[in-house]
Amino acid sequence: MKLIECPRDAMQGLPEFIPTATKTAYLNQLLQVGFDTLDFGSFVSPKAIPQLRDTAEVLAGLDLSTTRTKLLAIVANLRGAETAASFPEISYLGFPLSVSETFQLRNTNKTIAEALTELAHMQDLCEKNDKTLVTYLSMGFGNPYGDPWGPETVAEFTQNLADMGVRVVALSDTVGVSSPDTIAPLFSQLIPEFPTIEFGAHLHTTPTTWQEKVEAAYLAGCRRFDGAIGGIGGCPMAADQLTGNMPTENMVAFFSSHHVDLGLDLEAFAAAQSYAQSVFN
Q1: What pTM value is reported for the model?
Q2: If pLDDT is split at 50, 70 and 90, which confidence band does 234 have?
Q3: How many domains is the chain built from?
């Protein structure tokens, strides 16, 4: 079981800039918890995501000497990927590839075809620099634009990624439309169909629907889950203001009740939860 903590996703939409020192201190606390991976920052245009314009400075202040947690940085184009790949501390580069043409254009100003071409270059870059590319299939559970979607569409995208050599694909619920009826069939179909790929769940949720979503993905075989302490963040395009990231503390409780050993330092986790309140409130 892999838990990926996503403070980057929690921070990126906040209007008030979080000081670099505050970000660094929070991330250093998270590094003590024992998460598999920390989605810590992004190398994208500061005009697009001003909150994360200091990712390189934050990275320089992280204490990686005693942690088992690996670092993941989000990129939106090849230039950002080249920058991220130049840092030996970063293990994963994450790229959002949308199943929805409309959202791909809005999110990265590229068509799906253009994004796939760039993604192929990123995969080559990662292989040359000993990195792993994580492809997030955004709008993976449906979209509000009327663009084509269904298990066969997601499988077609996944086949393209598998052909490129991509090894990690996270199905992403960008606007919180997923339900057990869409989550379970997708993972149940894709996991056996693509045995070389590790599938993850990046789910957004309302406070009352988180458990049914996690349970559906877990019972369908998913063993990689993204979350954010407090459920902070999520897509600003979501219609429901209560829709946010999957709360990490809820997942910890869920997996504990299913006797899944996550290997976390629960005291460090409690300290991180406390620190989060000062960062985000």
Answers
A1: 0.95
A2: low
A3: 1
